[in-house]
Structures are given as C-alpha cells and as structure tokens.
Amino acid sequence: MVDRTIYNRHSRLQASVQVPGDKSLSHRAILWSGMAEGESKLVGIGPGADIQASLSAMRQLGVTIDGDKVVSPGISRWVSPGEDIDCANSGTTIRLLAGILSTATVQAVLTGDASLSARPMSRLVDPLRSLGGRIDTTPDGTAPLRLGGALKVVGASVFLDVASAQVRTAFEMAALAASGPSTLDSPGGFRDHTERMLVSIGLGEWASKTAFRITPGKLRPQRYDIPGDPSSASFLWALAAIHRDSKVLTPNVSLNPGRLGFLQILDEMGAGIEAVVTGSIGGDPVGDVIVRGAPLRAVSISGELVASALDELPLVAVVAAFAEGVTSVSDASELRTKESDRIEATTALIRALGGGVESRPDGFDVVGTGFLEGGTIESQGDHRIAMAGAIAALSADGAVTIRDAGIADVSWPDFYDIVESVW
C-alpha cells in the first residue's frame, strides 16, 4: 500500500482538463464489442484497473483485443474459460457480465477481490432467473457467481426495488438472448446509458419514464467514441467550487442526465455552473462544463438526486465542510454496500480533518465550518474516499496524508498528479 501526503499551496484553480474516458460507457463498449461478431473499435476508453478487469474478462472468453481494436467470434461462439474470471474490484464488470453470461450457452465463474466478494449480488438472481438465466451466488448472496449454460431464455417483465443501473443493465443485456421482448421498471434516478444505447441501435424503447422494453437481437460491431467521465470531472468541479476566483473547464464529458446530480448539488449550493451540449454519442449528450468558485450554502439531498449523485456523495461531504450551514444527505443507505461502507468512511474522513459530521443509517449531516485541518485519512480501500480526501487536502489548513492512496488507480491512475499540477 502506498501513502501520499498532499499540501494545500493556497492557490486557485484556473485550468482546462480533459478527464479520462467515462467508466460506465467504457465497460459497456468493451462488453458489447465482445458480444458482437466481427471487429469493433474502442476510442478513448478509461484507463483504470476496473476497465482492465472488463478487458481481461473478454480475453478469457475468446475475444481478441489489440490496442483499440476488438475482434470477437460473437457471444454464440464464446469459449468457457478454464479458470475463474477475476473481476478484481470492479462491481460494474461482475454485475454486467453476470447478466450477459446468465443467458449464454457458455459457463463461467466470476470472482473478485476481498472487497468485491463482500458486496451484495443477490439482487441479480430473481430478475435473471425470470428470463431463464442461470446464476448462483454463495449462501450469503455474494461472489463467486456461477453462470451460464442456459437452455431456454424467455421474455419477462420485472420491477426492481432499487434504481440500480448495474442491475438494470444486467437484465437488459441478458434479455437480448430471449425468445421474446422483455420489460424492466424501477424507481427513477438511475443512469440510463444502456437504455440510450439500445434505443440508438433499435433494440429497445421506453414504455414510460422509468419502464424500458427490450427487443431481443444480436449486437453488431461498431466504433465506440467514449467521452470524458463526469464522475472523474466531479473532483475538479468540487475543487473549483470550494475556492473563490477558481474556474475549471472540463471539455467533452458525458452529460447524461442521470450523471449530473453532483452538478445540480453544486448549483444549489451556489457555485457557478455552465454546461453546454456540443453533440451526442450513442444517444448520450456530450458537452463542456465550466465550474466557478463562489460562497457556498448548505443543502438537503434526498430522493432521486441521491441516485444520480450516489458515487459523488463522499465528495459532497468535503464541499459541505466549506459551505455555510448544515448539509444533510438522506435516502442513501446504498452507500453502505459500495467498495467500503461509504457513510462511515465519509464520516471518518471529515472527522479526521477536524470537521463536524454525524452519520445516520441512510446518510450523514455535515456542519459547514468553513475549514478543514491537516491530518491522516484512511482510504478504506475505496478509490472514491481516497480521491475525495485529495480534494479535502488541497483545501485544508495543513498537510494531509492519505493511507493506501494508490487505490485511486482503480478509476484514474494519474489522478493525484493531475489535480496537484493544476492547483
């Protein structure tokens, strides 16, 4: 484990930064390219370890990947791997691939590291089995997952209790192999990347605001151009928002509405926000975002806004420490099932730097003191906690050491060098 000490040089942010390719879209492009028979091209996929897990999984199933070129025999000719597929720390890899493999003829076992192996997978079981998919978890509802060898795949109608883009996508990808159409519904607030991609290729349509109908069919090889990741950009947006007279431009990022909860929160807190759509890729709007620093005020965050900003809520806590008033986050119990218990990890982060925070079963309250002190942060083996800690460090009154800082490589290997270079 590598620690990192970060110092606030009491500067201001004035920069344009092209952030890495979007993780969510990168995973989907890799898996879809592997399912399609023929040659596809991946342009601008994310660089992190999670993305490497998806690439490695495709290779084990018989897909050839050379640079940005993917050549696949098609899902019907995938080979059953001789060894378990290690999804490392990537929840997206294991859940999306579980959906695809559950209704495939090949058989495979999906595993992960200690953190991933403790995360809940049972919510996949009933939706995938309703299609005729084959999936088994451990008795605790966790990985390893045993998948595949489906004999008959039929259409189904499913309602999910949680607005999970990963579970929705797992079902949608599994349903492509069915003998008839399927319908999926859930509460709102989810990222709808998969639905937009299916609509763009004629294999799906919206039945309502949240319900989606999947038409079975084969994916075709194509070129995927991946825009910048708004979840990565959010760390730069936060740094700019905290500091008056700061400004950051992040060009060519995904502006999928389900990904913009953090920008909405910053806007409600008083930061200057400009987002301009410049185009569309795979049905997703893409554009440029500018964030300017300003005096910030506390907000209350709940409901669908939580779902669209779930990954960024630890970062919200850091920003809230510099806002006036008490910022409250609720309806966020899902945070407890991430790479760490992010409610407790976030609370520990703020307290370690002298901030005021109280945790609750479904969220936390942060007192906006206007400052954070130096100290030591435990990343808890969670890349988003480590990265939020770096933004806190660049705003703190003293040096901050992040334990196991290298976990940020999961999503952005050059993260610390980039943010320190522009500060």
Please state the oligomeric state of the protein chains shown.
single chain
Number of strands: 23
What's the arrangement of strands in the largest beta sheet? 2-15-17-16
What is the CATH domain class of the largest domain? Alpha Beta
Overall 3D form: globular
Distance between the termini: 25 Å
**Mind telling me the C-alpha Rg?**
21 Å
Say which CATH homologous superfamily of the largest domain is assigned: Enolpyruvate transferase domain
Counting DSSP H or I runs of 4 or more residues, the number of helices is 14
* Biggest β-sheet strands, sense, barrel: 4 strands, mixed
The CATH topology of the largest domain, please?
A: UDP-n-acetylglucosamine1-carboxyvinyl-transferase, Chain
Low-confidence stretches: none
Share of helix among residues? 25-40%
What is the strand content? 15-25%
Overall number of structural domains: 2
Mean pLDDT: 96
CATH architecture descriptor text of the largest domain: Alpha-beta prism
Description:
There is one protein chain. The mean pLDDT is 96. By secondary structure, this protein is of the alpha/beta class. Helix 8 (230-242) runs parallel beside helix 11. The strands form six sheets. It has a four-stranded mixed beta sheet. Strands 4-5-3-14 form a four-stranded mixed beta sheet, with helices on one face. The chain has a four-stranded mixed beta sheet with strand order 6-7-9-8. The two termini are 25 Å apart. The chain has 14 helices and 23 strands. 53% of the residues are buried. A hairpin with a 2-residue loop joins strand 20 (356-360) and strand 21 (363-368). It has two domains: 4-21 and 228-421, Alpha-beta prism (UDP-n-acetylglucosamine1-carboxyvinyl-transferase, Chain); 23-225, UDP-n-acetylglucosamine1-carboxyvinyl-transferase, Chain (Alpha-beta prism).
